[in-house]
Amino acid sequence: MSLTITDECINCDVCEPECPNEAITQGVEIYEIDPNKCTECVGHYDTPQCVEVCPVDCIPKDPANQENEDQLWVKYEKLTGNPRSS
Predict the structure, then answer these.
(1) How many Cβ atoms are within 10 Å of 70's Cβ, its own excluded?
(2) How far is CA 40 from CA 18, 26, 28, 72, 80, in A?
(3) pLDDT tens per residue, range 63-86
């Protein structure tokens, strides 16, 4: 699954620079995550970095964009051009 940002977001600006795929951008009211770019940091880190730094715990998995780990790896490869490491 990709992640999503809920309306509990306080626009603290800490999540956006942590995203290695540049999936997080400032929306009209709160930050937003582009599900086409979000890999939950698969290929980059062991855990989603935006979740790690969020002070209000407003970044859950997005039930509207369910993906398994293999699908996230495919997306990582497509976005970065890097092959999946063993």
Answers:
(1) 10
(2) 11, 18, 23, 8, 14
(3) 999 999 999 999 999 999 999 876
